[in-house]
Design brief:
82% helix; mainly alpha; 3 helices
Amino acid sequence: MKTGHSVQITIEQWQQFSLGLRHYGDAQDWPNLVKLNQLLIKALHQVAREDFNETPQQALARLEVEKVHTQVLRDLKRARDQLSSELSGFKSSQAGLLAYQFTCISGEVDDI
């Protein structure tokens, strides 16, 4: 629904989104990254709903946010996959340790 007035997202605001995404992603500050992502989604939806004639500079800044967002998402998926791999290794090691402990306990019982 067009309201007749234009919502302007400034170049500086797009740059703040990019900086925030990078900062929170690098710091692995997931709660703040989620909050910033929600704000970004709202801004993009609002811009899409309005008559928005962005300047070429605004378009470039918005595309930079898209690029940074894609990179942060890629890094997040990589971190998730690494954590999943480490957890699988831990579970595998834990099963081996339990088997070893059981063998030790069985040996102790045999020694009695």
